[in-house]
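hey m, so remember when u said the tokens were messed up on ur end? i reran from scratch. heres the input so u can diff it against urs
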Amino acid sequence: MRKIKKPESLADQAYDLIRKDILLGKLAPSEELPEEKFAMELGISRTPLREAIRRLATDGLVILQTGKPATVSSFTKEDALHQMEVRKLLETYNVEQVVQHVTPKFLINLKENLKLQKNAAENNDFHDFIKLDCEFHLLLADQNPNIKLCEMIHTINTGVNRAFLILANTYPISAMEASGEHQDIITALEKQNELAARKAMHEHMDNIERRFLHYYEEG
């Protein structure tokens, strides 16, 4: 783990680096995060490290224990499926609301993201694809003026994408399927068709669960 630069927020940088290592599986479930070791590796004091770990605990990626080092939270097939169930409810409701807040700039951002997704899939860079997939859904969430709903979607996407990042090397074909589903969502938003947007998102969420179960069994 590389040392971080100090001009930016140390807590933010520590959070980003540790979060990435958890999502990529470099830090395994139940692995301890001793403060002294991680502070030394990152080249920072314990204060910003503690702040970063608290944020990771809020995301559900870390478990805090009194008198003991924090540990990486466990993550099972059932955890992923439960999160996908909640995510489906949140994201289908969100896209209905976002139909009323579509702007040209918003559509440009979605299309640019989709273009990058396709490039990543064509280059077999599935870790990058999953990152862009997550960003697509967060763009949708961020367009909603309901801040609390936006925050909930950000949090739930962390858990869902943890599942897919762990299994990222197991699927080449369905990345293009997901991109096609994202295009359907964009098309519905362009037309400002609430029913079509909801239908496209609901089908996308169903397919995400189907793909996850396939990858899980194949992996």
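this time it looks ok to me. The chain has a mean pLDDT of 89. if urs says something different then somethings off w ur setup not the seq
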